Amino acid sequence: xxxxxxxxxxxxxxxxxxxxxxxxxxxxxxxxxxxxxxxxxxxxxxxxxxxxxxxxxxxxxxxxxxxxxxxxxxxxxxxxxxxxxxxxxxxxxxxxxxxxxxxxxxxxxxxxxxxxxxxxxxxxxxxxxxxxxxxxxxxxxxxxxxxxxxxxxxxxxxxxxxxxxxxxxxxxxxxxxxxxxxxxxxxxxxxxxxxxxxxxxxxxxxxxxxxxxxxxxxxxxxxxxxxxxxxxxxxxxxxxxxxxxxxxxxxxxxxxxxxxxxxxxxxxxxxxxxxxxxxxxxxxxxxxxxxxxxxxxxxxxxxxxxxxxxxxxxxxxxxxxxxxxxxxxxxxxxxxxxxxxxxxxxxxxxxxxxxxxxxxxxxxxxxxxxxxxxxxxxxxxxxxxxxxxxxxxxxxxxx
Length: 399
What we know:
Order of helices and strands: HHHHEHHEEEEHHHHHHHHH
Low-confidence stretches: 286-291, 322-328, 359-367, 389-399
Number of strands: 5
Strand content: 5-15%
Mean pLDDT: 75
Radius of gyration: 37 Å
Distance between the termini: 63 Å
């Protein structure tokens, strides 16, 4: 069935896309999927096509994202998505018992919806609330420390048209209303965010920090958050101050500069001392000159592939290895003599040639030569004893 999305949905889609730069419009795909789910209750094929149309993508690209995230439902879902955590911590505390009780009470299993279309039940791997376990959520709002009895009470109230108050967070809304919020639009219900509050385990850490005076150095909770204009102005002032604090360039002195032997250094026409000529180059400075290490200076391996670099690191040859380099041992042939210098790139090339990658149409090692050889041998064996394939199998079984 083809769905025609409302004008309001299309207007909201344009608003979502406008939040992103023109060349990054495909970043709007996640909220757009929530938007179509808000209208249909799930991401239908029509919803995938709609997102592809407004973003200029193909349906395969949209479908790949929609099937990756569990919050996008691929079939009609109830008004209230009840998720029970059955991961390790909640399971130890009774989460599996809660889920099993709800499944029996509602007559549905994982990712199934009750006949009246009210409740969809699912078990969740983790709801990120281990300190409140066992927990379940209704449309992603938390009910903490539940047991089988309280969980049944919550779903019965939902099926009767009630809205039980979550332990933490705002008052409940339907899954479609929640999807609108996940798409980035405010909850327009009267007093929708007026209720709820933090739980005791969450506040416990804050109280311990206050009790023992633990805080971030220099942190002032009363510091106001600056606007972008104020932040830009402060950054400009800091940059100007840093530029002003830079030392002025040193002017060349007209006085003669004495050399190391006490004589005046040569000067130019204006009497300005000329820079001393560098000593004759004798080659690159060795690491030992700076750090005391006897490791030889070798060319940086930036022009080598990562595979070659790794091979040389794990198995250095006599040309690159140094006996006292940390963590390095020169390989020997057993007599204590280091091998001659080798070419790691040649060794890498030989290894690649001996292990040609498989083609797109066949697995590694599946070459035509081996197949032809096997067929030839099988045919030769059949011709030798005059038995066909079935006779050969029977003969093999008897042997």
